[in-house]
Design goal:
- The protein is built from 11 helices and 5 strands, in the order H-H-H-H-H-H-H-H-H-E-H-E-E-H-E-E.
- The protein is α+β, with helices and mostly antiparallel strands and 375 residues long.
- It folds into 3 domains: 161 residues, no CATH class; 70 residues, Single alpha-helices involved in coiled-coils or other helix-helix interfaces (Up-down Bundle); 114 residues, Heat Shock Protein 90.
- The protein has a 5-stranded mixed beta sheet.
- Helix 5 runs antiparallel to helix 6, helix 5 runs parallel beside helix 7 and helix 6 runs antiparallel to helix 7.
- It is elongated.
- The relative contact order is 0.08.
- Pfam families: HATPase_c (PF02518), HisKA_3 (PF07730).
- GO terms for molecular function: phosphorelay sensor kinase activity; protein dimerization activity.
């Protein structure tokens, strides 16, 4: 749920730069003139920069960078082939890996296949013997497998980006619809009432000198109308504060279904005090948002229990988890839970588990028989 696992997976491609040890070891095995040494290290440094750019630009949707990286890897192989002996073949493996980082399967296939065939050219030309055949075949297979793996990873990355964009769009549309609803409700509630108050106040002002009793009656009527309007506004505000945990579960299911994540609700939902239910609903919303954006989970389990000491809400997912510092969303929710006397625990081992404990509020007993409500 934290940003730490996401940063790890974004930086994970840099791990494969360790295979540059092969051309480096092949190069340092024998002495080279200064010109060749400068050329080799310049090519190596340029390739590292290109490799990083391909993965960074690829995440931004610029797929043509995979072809640039493929061409750069082939050129690096051609330049360093005679300088690092067989170690230069690592650049061909990189060529397959880089060309796979795009959505077009046929480009990834043919690009990696060409890199694998180039790897076998020294064998056909007699520069390598039959003793070299096993490692050449292994490298060719590894090139194709790497291209496929990167292609599949890129498609997954694109799908996750689209899901996140869809989630943001849904949140934006929901916020706009909510603002429109609030504006419409306030207009319906207060528009006519305030107009009546203005008219009666003007009438009371005109009657103040010549008919004080009638003016006082109009003022009392203004007071009565104002109190009714205040009551209606307070009722509307309570409605805006939250529509309950059941409704939030329904919204969570829609969001998780869109992201390809299953929602499991463990048992019936007990009847909760209004303060507890509002806080639990907001905590569920924050947890589901984090799952959709960061967790890469397949399933989310939600369970609400009522006990002698209060209520427990547990939200568990099977995603990447992590023990990184909490974001502002969960930190804010922890403060909300603490504000009504509860506690919030987070465990990032084997996924992420949020466990919120709420006390019995306002002297309300825990219901003996919870209502059987399912999302």
């Amino acid at each position: 749920m934290s940003s730490m696992p996401r940063r790890f997976w974004e930086l994970f491609p840099l791990f494969w730069l360790m295979f540059l040890a092969y051309p480096v070891s092949g190069f340092v095995q024998r002495a080279h003139p200064p010109g060749e040494t400068a050329l080799f290290w310049a090519v190596l440094a340029g390739f590292v920069v290109l490799y990083v750019l391909v993965f960074r630009r690829g995440r931004e949707g610029r797929e043509y960078w995979s072809l640039i990286g493929w061409v750069g890897a082939l050129l690096a192989y051609g330049v360093t082939f005679r300088l690092s002996d067989g170690g230069a073949s690592a650049f061909l493996v990189y060529a397959g890996a880089l060309v796979g980082y795009q959505s077009r399967a046929y480009v990834a296939l043919w690009g990696s296949l060409l890199a694998a065939l180039v790897m076998a050219l020294p064998l056909w030309s007699g520069q390598y013997g039959l003793d070299d055949l096993p490692w050449i075949v292994v490298n060719m297979v590894f090139t194709l497998v790497t291209a496929y793996a990167n292609h599949a990873g890129f498609l997954r990355h694109v799908a996750q980006a689209r899901v996140a964009q869809l989630q943001r769009e849904q949140e934006r549309l929901a916020a706009e619809a909510e603002r429109e609803r609030i504006a419409r409700d306030l207009h319906d509630l207060l528009g006519h009432t305030l107009s009546v108050i203005v008219l009666k106040s003007e009438l009371a002002s005109r009657l103040a000198e010549r008919a004080p009793a009638q003016a006082a009656a109009e003022i009392r009527e203004v007071e009565r109308i104002s109190r009714e309007a205040l009551h209606e506004v307070r009722a509307a505000v309570r409605g805006y504060q939250g529509s309950g945990l059941t409704a939030e579960l329904a919204r969570a299911k829609v969001a998780l279904d869109t992201a390809g994540v299953a929602l499991r609700v463990g048992g019936p939902l007990p009847e909760l005090p209004r303060e507890v239910e509002a806080t639990a609903a907001m905590l569920l919303r924050e947890a589901v948002t984090n799952v959709v954006r960061h967790a890469r989970a397949h399933e989310v389990q939600v369970k609400v229990e009522a006990g002698p000491r209060g209520y427990v809400l547990e939200i568990r997912d099977d995603g990447v988890g992590g023990q990184a510092p909490e974001g502002s969303g969960l930190t804010g929710m922890r403060e909300r839970v603490r504000a009504i006397g509860g506690t919030l625990e987070r465990d990032g081992r084997g996924g992420t588990r949020l466990r919120a404990q709420f006390p019995v509020l306002a002297g309300r007993p825990v219901p003996a028989a919870p209502a059987a409500v399912r999302a």
